[in-house]
Structures are given as C-alpha cells and as structure tokens.
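Milestone 3.1: sequence recovery, worked example.
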C-alpha cells in the first residue's frame, strides 16, 4: 500500500509537471462534458487505459475548456484492485509522454 501510494503521488506530480493541469488526481472521479466539448475532445483521443483520463483533460485544457473539481461520494463494497500498480505506472508514464508530445505538436487544437 505504501509503495502504490508513493508511486501514485509521484505519477501525479509528473502528470501536473508535464501537462500543467494542476489536478490533484487525474484518475479519480467522474468526467462530465457538454455535447460540444465531448465532440471536440473525443475525436482527438488516441490513448486507451489509464492514460485516457490525462488525454481527455489535456485536450480540454489546450482547447481552453473549463476544468472543475466537484466532490462526489462514491461508495462500493470493499473491492480490492487487481491491477499491477508498478506495471500500470510504467504504461501510464509512456502514455503521459504521448500526451506531452500531442500538446507540443498542437495535435489537440488542430
């Protein structure tokens, strides 16, 4: 648990450093969009898996869409995660580099 918490915190720092999103946790919570924003953003999505959330948020930011954090309460029965956190952190880092390249090349706004 300590290992995964440390990795998650470091990954969030890296995400915010490269994307300038300033979002506490890009993976947590629900994402909602109006129809115009959804059409704009989802036609630009190329990343699947956990990197998808960062891809969405980075595209929204590049297109000057407002990103808000709204607290929600989500309860579920003590389901333990079955992901390999170290492996997923590696994959997420690769996805983050892909998002960074998309930002730098103007992909999101073209």
């Amino acid at each position: 648990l300590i290992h995964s918490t440390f990795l998650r915190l470091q990954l969030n720092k890296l995400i915010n450093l490269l994307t300038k999103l300033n979002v506490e946790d890009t993976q947590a919570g629900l994402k909602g969009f109006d129809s115009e924003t959804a059409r704009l953003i989802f036609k630009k999505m190329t990343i699947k898996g956990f990197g998808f959330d960062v891809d969405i948020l980075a595209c929204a930011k590049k297109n000057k869409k407002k990103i808000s954090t709204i607290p929600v309460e989500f309860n579920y029965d003590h389901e333990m995660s079955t992901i390999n956190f170290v492996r997923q952190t590696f994959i997420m880092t690769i996805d983050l580099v892909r998002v960074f390249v998309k930002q730098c090349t103007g992909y999101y706004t073209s």
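The helical segments are 2-19, 35-42, 51-62, 85-105. The CA atoms of residues 29 and 58 lie 16 Å apart.
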